[in-house]
Amino acid sequence: MKYSDDFEKKPSEQKEEQNRVEAMLSDLDKDGINDLDQYVEDIRNREIDQTQRLSVQLKLVKDGRFAWLQKIGIILFWYLRPILYVIGEKTRSYFRFLLGVLAASWGVLVESISPITWRRTVKYEFKRSLGQVVCGGFFSTFFTATLAGLAVVSQAIFWLGAAGLTKMTGPILITILVREVAPILVGMILLGRNGILTVTECSLLAMGGQLKSLTVMGIDPFITIVLPRAWAFTIGSFTLGMIFGTTSLFMGYVVTYALGTMQDSIWTFYSNILAAMSVADYVLVPLKFIVMGFMIGVGSCITGMNVKVNDEPSTLLPKGFTRGIMLIMVVNILFTLDF
Length: 339
What we know:
Elements: H1 11-30, H2 36-59, H3 67-113, H4 120-162, H5 169-208, H6 210-216, H7 221-259, H8 266-276, H9 279-305, H10 313-338
Protein name: Permease subunit MlaE of the ABC-type intermembrane phospholipid transporter Mla (MlaE)
Transmembrane segments: 68-88, 94-113, 133-160, 238-259, 290-309, 321-337
Organism: Commensalibacter communis
């Protein structure tokens, strides 16, 4: 190493610099790069080659009235390519995740049919996961449903009564609360309370080598880990969804009845709500909760099990949350189109 005459380093600093350079060279050797000068020369040659390719493309443009526009477009595209590569990589990663979730979902459905799949370990994992989903999310769902009842149901009943549109209470609550608000809020509770926990558990198993150990012992990690959690999330989402809808309507009725806005009994109120529901609502609303819970469970497991070497909790957990929100929005949009 060469230093200028007017700059001197302490022995400790020189030692640290030497260790840093040696570490960098050792990393290069691991990548198959034995000569640093040759490596730098290859990079320069590559840059020169790219510049020459750009000049060749510019020369291939035929002379004409709009030739200068074509050249500007070629230059802009040439220098924007790195940005386009990054955008394309991120876009492909999300589509790859969606396709992976669909493939894993199909695998769960196929494997669930076989009686051999439901062995003692799988049943135990299913019961444990179902208890975590339902019992762990009950109080969060109850509290959120209470707030939704106070904010949505009571206000809708109050202002519709003030406007003389009491008969529209049932259809509006079904459209706003039952179809749209309830599935999204339950999905977010399920994701934040149990989905992130599942991502963490699966990532620790993957990074700790337990998944490979299960494979070596002849145990399929997909059947042991993904399948029971997917069905636990499915049943838990349906259960929490029914709790949310019933609680929010009840709390909204209690508030409006206490204020004197609602004069009907609780049974008449629920009867009007049920009468406002169509046949499609009785099928699609529960199915929406079921599909949303199933997709969140599968997506959380896939995100955790496909952890990379450079992933850390600071990057993995936001990734799991973002992907879960994306799945919730996709399911909600698809079912909204059906309605």
